[in-house]
Amino acid sequence: MVAQGNGPAGHGGRAQALGNASATLAGEVWAAANNPAGLGTITKPTAGLYFENRYLIPSLNVAAVAVALPLGPVEPLAAGQPPRASHGVLGLEAQRFGGVLYNELRVGAAYGYRLGVINIGGRLDALQVSFQDLGSRRVLVASLGGQAEILPQRLTLGVHLYNLAQARLADYQDERVPTVLRAGLAYRAGQQVLLLAEAEKDVERDAGVKAGLEYLPTAAVAVRLGYASLSQQATGGVGLRAGDFQLDYAAGWHSALGLSQYFSLGWQWRKAEAQHPG
After folding, report:
1. What is the pLDDT of residues 39-64, one digit of tens each?
2. Which of 22, 81, 134, 268 is placed for a possible disulfide with 77 were both Cys, Cβ 3.0 to 4.6 Å?
3. Which residue has the higher pLDDT, 1 or 122?
């Protein structure tokens, strides 16, 4: 049996439009799923809803809710550095994949913290896999992530290891949750253009590559393109920001399987930021 998406599922319309090249993405609630290190740059409480449908098949639907909560007062790191939550950021996410015959339920707690130009993070999931008439199996899955600004505000490296303990679902045929390592680079070519490239390797499968392009014609609008070699899927989408709300939509096309669609909505509380003493 292969777990959802052959490992860690990419969440959020933005990530999906970028081919799920998401190891470097930060500052949004879906970092809780994509790379918990990215939570470290969030400074305001944020919530999100996510839905996806693969190939127009209802039994392949995914639904998720997430929240990110900065801990402690928000303070600037240093001159020229963005602010951070002094005690890090807690992320919580619940997701469901599948239908009646087979489904996966996952509840996870994530934490991200910013140290200068480095973000670190981790997540622990309680995963339940259920088969109709065959019962359910439950396991804990731990993940770690990191992000580093190689060139501040220009070039970022992101790394994410999912299921670092190689959790076992069943003794029969040594059935395990996939262990997946992802590493990527994000290059910001000016204020309007972001380029992403990422490699992904399941320890039991071939490696794959992902690529994404994000263009911001205005501060409130984003246009995105992506491609993922493992799923052989080309993607595209748009993002719209209106006040405290962020709406992202993506569509993917597979030459044999057809259309997939992804939708997410984010809401950020306007919480006053505390000033750093001195």
Report:
1. 999 999 999 999 999 999 999 999 99
2. 81
3. 122
Give yes or no for a contact between 14 and 98, defined as CB atoms under 8 angstroms apart.
no
Contacts 24+ apart (CB under 8 A), 150-155: 152/80, 152/117, 153/188, 154/187, 154/188, 155/185, 155/186, 155/187, 155/188
Q: Which two tokens stand for residue 127?
A: 């995963």
What are the Cα distances from residue 225, in Å, to 62, 165, 228, 256, 264?
21, 34, 11, 20, 16
- Two tokens at 231? 């799923």
Structure tokens at 35: 């790379």
- Contact by Cβ (8 Å): 90, 130: no
Residue 9, SS3? coil
Pairing of strands 118-131, 135-151: antiparallel
Burial 8-18 (b: 16+ CB within 10 A, else e): bbbbbbbbbbb
Domains and CATH numbers, the chain: 4-268 (2.40.160.40)
Confidence of residue 127 (pLDDT cuts 50, 70, 90): very high
Can you list the positions of beta strands (E) in 152-232? 155-162, 168-170, 175-176, 180-188, 193-202, 207-218, 221-228
For strand 221-228 and strand 207-218, is the pairing parallel, antiparallel, or unpaired?
A: antiparallel
**CB-based contact 69:48 (threshold 8 Å):** no
Q: What is the largest CA-CA distance in the chain?
A: 63
Instruction: List, in sequence order, the alpha helices (H) in 11-121.
Output: 13-17, 31-34
